[in-house]
């Protein structure tokens, strides 16, 4: 099955990747414009308009990160069971799009905002594993890093454009949230249309190689030592990773750049990710996906260390955000490419969802814990704890992978 799908991909390439990858990249581009518009707006809205505490902010951000967790497993299992990953991904994209029109209705309600964020992230949880399965089944094994790099690069164009759209709307229409949410919905809706009409998947009658999809078969993947180690590594490093919004808030606070520049900080991360995702994906195919994944977290450690710099300003902010973008380019798609080689085709979405669920739960814990830490300690102390936690996690992971190699 996998060989057949790989040949189909080679026969229908548009440039260096199959049209399926390009179409899914376009869907992600449009969806990420929608999502990053909200991400860029939320820190200003929650911290400086609604004046939420860091604890409340951490809880909401934890919901944003972790609400995907369980539904990743559901989405992966159902996609494999029905052999319809496009359908399940479409449900997830549609669910996320629908929430954008409801944000203005909940106003300043922390509970309402948290609930809608949970629904939005539930949609992401449903779609992520089926989407990555569609990508991984459309290319040969030796080109997985390249395919995921191209997809993540296109996705990042959306991450780059989203904050710009938010900034322009705020600059021209003021801080009223309704226009931002309505425009965000428009981009998400167009992305769903592209998915429906331009993304192709293998015929339902074509049975993929591997065990029959079931919850037991998906969990049985953990019996494989290599796959179990990949899940543990992703979870441990996820536990030591600060969420994007905390990184952006910390960059603004530690470098003392203006609050008005906060919605624009994601641009440098996204721009660097855009330029580096495909090249680092190709490099990962050559030098190994695990070494690239580990190196990416060393770059993240550099971000945290820069936040301790005694003199701030734009130079430190730019350096930190460029490293942050390189971290994502070296890890985001590379993790899925690395894990895909350990999972049979019939369980591809289920297996990827197991890895991604562990990482999402770890990052939920990280967001909530760091919110409490930032609320009750100085910013410098909180950053020192983040540095120590990530350094310790890297040492443990290096030792585990060395002894189990």
Automatic annotation (TrEMBL):
Residues 20-404 form the Major facilitator superfamily (MFS) profile domain. The lineage of its organism: Bacteria, Bacillati, Actinomycetota, Actinomycetes, Pseudonocardiales. SUPFAM superfamilies: MFS general substrate transporter (SSF103473). Keywords: Membrane, Transmembrane, Transmembrane helix. This is Major Facilitator Superfamily protein. It comes from Actinokineospora alba. GO terms for molecular function: transmembrane transporter activity. PROSITE patterns: MFS. It is a multi-pass membrane protein. InterPro entries: MFS, MFS_dom, MFS_trans_sf. GO terms for cellular component: plasma membrane. Pfam families: MFS_1 (PF07690). It is found in: Cell membrane. The chain crosses the membrane at residues 21-48, 54-74, 157-174, 180-199, 230-251, 257-278, 290-308, 314-339, 382-401.
């Amino acid at each position: 099955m996998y060989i057949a799908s790989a040949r189909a991909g080679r026969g229908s390439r548009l440039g260096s990747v199959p049209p399926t990858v390009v179409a899914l990249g376009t869907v992600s581009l449009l969806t990420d414009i929608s999502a990053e518009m909200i991400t860029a707006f939320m820190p200003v809205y929650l911290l400086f308009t609604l004046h939420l505490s860091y604890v409340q902010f951490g809880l909401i951000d934890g919901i944003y990160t972790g609400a995907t967790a369980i539904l990743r497993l559901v989405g992966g299992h159902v996609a494999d069971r029905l052999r319809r990953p496009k359908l399940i991904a479409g449900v997830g994209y549609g669910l996320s799009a629908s929430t954008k029109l409801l944000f203005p209705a909940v106003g300043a309600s922390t509970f309402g905002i948290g609930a809608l964020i949970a629904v939005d992230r539930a949609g992401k949880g449903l779609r992520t594993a089926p989407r990555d399965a569609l990508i991984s089944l459309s290319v040969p094994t030796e080109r997985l890093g390249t395919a995921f790099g191209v997809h993540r690069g296109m996705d990042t164009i959306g991450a780059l454009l989203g904050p710009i759209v938010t900034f322009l709307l705020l600059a021209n229409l003021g801080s009223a949230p309704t226009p931002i949410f309505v425009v965000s919905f428009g981009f998400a809706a167009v992305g769903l249309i592209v998915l429906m009409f331009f993304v192709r998947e293998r015929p339902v009658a074509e049975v993929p190689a591997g065990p029959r999809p079931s919850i037991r078969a998906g969990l049985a993947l953990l019996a494989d030592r290599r796959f179990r180690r990949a899940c543990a590594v992703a979870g441990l490093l996820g536990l030591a990773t600060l969420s994007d919004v905390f990184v952006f808030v910390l960059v603004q606070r530690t470098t003392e750049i203006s609050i008005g520049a906060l919605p624009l900080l994601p641009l440098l991360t996204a721009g660097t990710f855009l330029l580096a995702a495909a090249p680092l994906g190709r490099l990962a195919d050559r030098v190994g996906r695990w070494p690239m994944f580990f190196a990416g977290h060393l770059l993240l450690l550099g971000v945290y260390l820069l936040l301790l710099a005694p003199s701030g300003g734009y130079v430190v902010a730019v350096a930190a955000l460029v490293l942050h973008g390189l971290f994502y380019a070296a890890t985001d798609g590379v993790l899925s490419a690395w894990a895909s080689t350990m999972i049979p085709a019939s369980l591809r979405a289920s297996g990827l969802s197991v890895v991604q669920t562990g990482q999402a739960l770890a990052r939920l814990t990280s967001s909530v814990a760091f919110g409490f830490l930032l609320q009750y300690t100085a910013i410098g102390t909180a950053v020192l704890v983040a540095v120590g936690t990530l350094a310790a996690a890297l040492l443990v992971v290096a030792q585990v992978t060395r002894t189990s190699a």
